[in-house]
Amino acid sequence: MDNESADILILIKDTGNYQVLKEWLREKDRFNIVLPSEDIASKEFDLCVLDRQGLIENEELLRDRKYDRGYIPYLLVLPESIASKTVEYLPNDIDKIVDDILQTPLRPMALSKRINMALQVSKQAGHLSETNKRLRIINRITRHDIRNDMAVIQGWAKELRPHLNEKGIPMLENVIAGSEHVVGLTESLRDVIQTFDRDNRNYVSIDLHKQLGEVINRRREVHSHAQIEYNPGSVHPTIRADELLTSVFRNLIDNAVEHNPKDTPRVWIQTDVKKARASVTVADDGPGIPPEHREAVRGRAEGGLDHPAAGLGLYLVDTLVTDYGGTMQIANREEGGTSVCVTLPVIEPERDKTTKQSEVPTHQHRRTQRSDADSDDEGPEQ
User: Fold this and answer.
1) Fewest C-beta atoms under 10 Å: which of 17, 62, 153, 320?
2) Band of the pLDDT at 9, cuts 50, 70, 90?
3) Which residues on adjacent β-strands are paired with residue 319?
4) What's the pTM?
5) What phi, psi does 305 have (nearest 5°)?
């Protein structure tokens, strides 16, 4: 904003400071001085420089205007001797609307630095606000318009099944699978957009085993052709996260199933707790992820999500796990396939907790019963 004009409102009662600031601004062609008047409420300005008296006398107006049409920075002029005691110097928590301090005596270099910095922050805040508006529009489109249309497509596709011959059924299955994939993408996109809105994310204590179990049961319904096995371990930790934690587990499982070309993909999920860190490992018997692509699939390689190997699902997992203070590691299994392990900080570990049978997810979609003798076949070490 160094070359852009800016309207600066002066609310300084001290005559000396007022004159110094006014003369300095007049020397700068890009600054337009907005003087106080009785109709100050109608004034348009990009930044306000004020002292204690000006702030107190116009407190209500300044609070209302702070974010009324974007973000307006307020710079408070204070004597150098009390600049570090702003909170004690101002009543009614009014200091919270002040963005920066201009210490007296006012010096040209300090004025230039503080004012330019404040205007730059204001410009960036404006861009961020506009970006958030556009993200909300995208979120609404994905959550409602696209999902509703895909629901219609899925409904008609299923109605079409009885009218097709044997050759047409596989084509219909491809249509249904494609529509389900689109719905999954809208869910991931919705969750990605939510990660940007950090101020409105509500972190709470979450029972990891319970939430993971609920997600697993739902994914078993969605991926009825897959074998999804879960070993919850003996420790059921509590972690601190928000509602997007379900997206972590959903995307890990979906990624394991959807990138596996086998007719019956197999997925093994297990949890563990060590040194106040809970781990959730999702392993599969798919083709694996080459080491050179492991940064790319999480959107960390050059090109970000535009990289050919990048995936929205694992990018979202990596982003959310990092937000929760955790980590994500990708490895290939010796038996073939991929193993993705996420770790999260534990806040309330509970050892040897007895789990009700109704709370433990059961494997509802195994096509064959496995005996004790082959229970460890191809699965990760328990």
Assistant:
1) 153
2) very high
3) none
4) 0.56
5) -75, -5
